[in-house]
Design goal:
The structure holds two protein chains of two kinds. Chain A is mainly α. Chain A has nine helices and no strands. In chain A, helix 1 crosses helix 2 and helix 6 packs across helix 9. Chain B has two domains: about 60 residues; about 170 residues, no CATH class. Chain B is about 30% helix and about 15% strand. The radius of gyration of chain B is 32 Å and the shape is elongated. The chains are: A mainly alpha, B alpha+beta.
Chain lengths: ~190, ~240
């Protein structure tokens, strides 16, 4: 089924939308989640949360590229699960507990600002990547957005693992310089 | 700023860039699968060809009578391995090397056409029937220029034994036909090595002057043409030093 039809189903509040989304993008989303979480159960949970988030966001959202839209949701949910999981691991340490408590105090009320900062940072990274060669851009996105293993990213970008490693190293340094020039605190 | 914020910021990347990379991820995977399939198929074909080839060669070897004597079949008249390019009449043909043995080696003359078989090796004297391992040391071939053309070669039966004995003395080498199939009273055929085809008559092999010098232990394929409606051929001969 085409993306437009699936989005229409979401807008019609038809539950078949989730079924078709799962049929078409289930594996794709699971792969993104698994690259972050490295756990099947957590990945499934993340993908299910993605469907719920998509159900809640459409309408009013009407994404032009459904796969990218769903991928971003899955990615963010998976990162959140990852952070929660790591926080749970630190429960034994009193320092970690106090760190979390103080962190909650500091971040209270600053969520909007953080989101704005993240958006600005994202736009700056967009700008930087658009200036890079296609090969470098694909490698960077594959490695840091899709979180594919270096070997796999190098393969589909048509370069050796060693070369991919050095390209990524140079690109990170260039990004750092770029962001400093743009006025970000690094 | 830390890595977490950078990761969060990456969620604001343009969809077009994400889709471009995603397309690349999926397309490349398919290519690799296709390449793997092709390479696997190529390997399978190679192995199958090798196995078939070895099996075919073995079957040819097994079907080739070597130690056993001749089998007569009319069926082989359909596919006689006749010489194609050479002109046997131009090759100098020596007279029968050992007419006595030649005469003895053609018992088919008095027998029925499908039942006659004999080997030249058997017809040769015992001292000439050297086994491959016991053959004399390798020497270079000495072509006999005195051999007359094939057309002028008298039948071996008519050759006086005295002449044969004289020529035996002159000859340094001879060809011993290991396995021969005959069906009629006498035969005419060809001896062929890698490059040339030579007439033979009554087990006497004529070697052209232009022939490569054979050495002891050489194996030469022997083919006989159709003779009086029957296919006569031999599979191998061995070159030995007298």
């Amino acid at each position: 089924m085409r993306d437009e039809k699936i989005i229409d189903l979401y807008w019609e509040r038809n539950e078949q939308a989730i079924k078709h989304t799962d049929e078409k993008y289930g594996k794709y989303l699971t792969k993104i989640a698994y690259n972050i979480l490295a756990d099947k159960e957590d990945s499934k949970e993340s993908v299910n949360d993605t469907y719920l988030a998509a159900w809640n966001s459409m309408p009013p959202q009407r994404p032009t590229a459904l796969s990218a839209y769903l991928g971003k949701i899955t990615r963010q949910i998976s990162i959140d699960i990852f952070r929660k999981r790591n926080r749970a691991k630190r429960k034994g340490s009193e320092f970690a507990v106090s760190y979390d408590e103080l962190g909650d105090v500091l971040t209270t009320g600053n969520m909007t600002e953080e989101q704005v900062q993240a958006k600005l940072l994202g736009e700056a990274i967009n700008k930087f990547l658009l200036e890079q060669p296609k090969e470098v851009r694909n490698l960077f996105i594959g490695r840091y957005y899709f979180l594919d293993p270096l070997k796999e990213a190098a393969r589909y970008c048509g370069m050796s693992e060693g070369k991919a490693k050095s390209v990524l190293f140079r690109t990170r340094n260039m990004l750092k310089e770029f962001l400093q020039k743009e006025g970000f605190d690094i | 700023m830390n890595a977490e914020k950078l990761h969060d910021a990456l969620n604001y990347l343009d969809d077009s860039m994400i889709l471009e990379t995603d397309k690349l991820r999926h397309r490349k995977k398919k290519t690799v699968i296709f390449r793997r399939f092709v390479s696997c198929a190529a390997c399978i074909c190679l192995i199958a060809t090798a196995v078939f080839g070895i099996g075919h060669m073995r079957s040819i070897r097994e079907n080739t009578p070597f130690d056993e004597n001749f089998e007569v079949s009319k069926d082989k008249a359909d596919t006689p391995p006749t010489p194609d390019n050479s002109d046997p009449s131009q090759d100098p043909a020596p007279p029968a090397e050992e007419s006595e043995s030649a005469d003895e080696s053609v018992p088919a003359q008095d027998q029925e056409k499908d039942e006659v078989s004999e080997s030249i090796e058997e017809s040769a004297p015992a001292d000439e029937r050297l086994p491959e391992e016991e053959s004399a040391p390798a020497d270079e071939w000495m072509p006999d220029e005195d051999f007359p053309p094939v057309d002028q070669v008298p039948p071996a039966e008519e050759t006086p034994p005295e002449e044969d004995e004289e020529k035996d003395e002159e000859k340094t080498y001879k060809l011993v036909i290991k396995v021969v199939q005959i069906t009629t009273d006498g035969f005419k055929g060809y001896v062929r090595n890698k490059n040339d085809i030579y007439d033979i008559n009554k087990y006497v092999t004529v070697i052209n002057e232009e022939r490569e010098k054979p050495i002891k232990g050489d194996t030469v394929d022997v083919y006989f043409s159709e003779y009086d409606g029957y296919t006569v051929y031999a599979e191998r001969i061995f070159i030995v030093k007298e």
